[in-house]
């Protein structure tokens, strides 16, 4: 069990279903957690549900004044910042039909704002002596998916940015890693399946070795580990939390060679 006692974490996008498992893992490991999300109602509900060590600061991560206020309020409440989890994202993506405005919006939310949040928190992360940043990438960073151009490009950029941050922050004792979930039970899946987890697992089964979607909490355990001293030797890495999605090749988990003699 990673120990985050006395540390303070900001989780962008922390109001959504998947993120609540991440916030829970960090809080149970002992951290004070500040949810930074544009969703005021969801953020307040999550902080009320998740207990005294979880606060909410309404934040639009594309707004630099909001980021400055988030950092100030976090420091005022908790005295510093040790961990930043960049989870907020947009799925805005019309593939080839997406034009400049959509590209700039998607890259602003998914990539540029993550860097700006780290910029705002950097003085406190470096003062911490045990600073850790965990960036949310995705299986979409390495696999092509039909009709998707913006989201996968943004997630691939995050993997590379993680390396760049790890390189330049090593001198400050700040470790930077990314986590790449596979299909994970989340708001979009809840909405699209009408809350049918069993159906979602059936759809995901052929392309996850675990034959199901993951849980936010399972991804959260990886995030808490990466944020903790248990991962003191880990920096600049992308961690798969994907039920084996990325281990599987195009043959999936089906014997292909016997088909030659059928
Ligand atoms: N759902 C999956 O199966 C899956 C798979 C791989 C990776 N991921 C990654 O996990 C993370 C969460 O995914 P999700 O499916 O739960 O997404 P989601 O769309 O449900 O949640 C995104 C959250 O970010 C917030 N947000 C969006 N724009 C914001 C802004 N400008 N300022 C502040 N907050 C903002 C939203 O309000 C929301 O709470 C994302 O980074 C996603 O890329 C998800």
UniProtKB/TrEMBL annotation:
Superkingdom field: Bacteria
Gene3D superfamilies xrefs: NAD(P)-binding Rossmann-like Domain
Ribonucleoprotein keyword on record: no
Classification via InterPro entries: NAD(P)-bd_dom_sf (IPR036291), Sc_DH/Rdtase_CS (IPR020904), SDR_fam (IPR002347)
Entry keyword set: Oxidoreductase
A Pfam family: adh_short_C2
GO molecular function terms listed in the Swiss-Prot or TrEMBL record: oxidoreductase activity
Keyword flag Protease: no
Protein name: SDR family oxidoreductase
